[in-house]
Amino acid sequence: MIDRVGLFVTCLADTVYPEVGQATVTVLERLGLEVIFPLEQTCCGQMHLNSGYPDEARALAERFVEIFEPFDAVVSPSGSCVALVREHYAGLLEGADRGVPGRTWELSQLLVDVLGVEDVGSGFEGTVTYHPTCHSLRLLRVGDAPLRLLRAVPGVELVELPDAEECCGFGGTFAVKNADVSGAMLDEKLSSVLATGAEVVCACDASCLMHIGGGLHRRGAAVRPLHLAEILAS
Prior knowledge:
Blueprint: E1 4-7, H1 11-15, H2 18-30, E2 34-36, H3 46-50, H4 54-68, E3 73-76, H5 79-92, E4 104-106, H6 107-114, E5 126-130, H7 134-139, H8 145-151, E6 156-159, H9 174-177, H10 179-196, E7 200-203, H11 206-219, E8 224-227, H12 228-233
């Protein structure tokens, strides 16, 4: 039974999208869970490991495990960060992960697969298209959990995104190191988003939404990028 949930808010939500973390808390507290935000938390180490600094990533992983071990479950509004914890911590820490990765969940996974909840008491008006981010799709394999949550929200008209499984081109430092390729991939994703006619593009990663949202803004498009948590908290 899950009573106390530790919130891992991630670097990006902490510094750029705090409303995503707040929305996550709103949704979980609405379901009667006690959500605790450990103030001493920091980066999960994803950027460091992806950039070839395993020692630095290992130190951050050890810190993560120490901070979140006391909780029944750990939740994060980031498929990419959760994918690192679940898929790479065991190897990075040579098994000394104290079972924390197995109790760490992306928000839609926790709601649908662990708690067995789809209707979280939301209400949102508008047309929404969903972009399945690479880590949530390919590493975490969240499946249709986000779509099931969106379909359960009264007022949401869900519109299918063409070529939905294609990457948006962000990829963390990939967008910096391979800007031209990243930009070309983003252009294709933006064209797909705009073809839906949706008012909102939704995803489970603020990083991808930042990338897509920036592109939409530069095009002068009125489509709003919103995290799944923000729609569910409405």
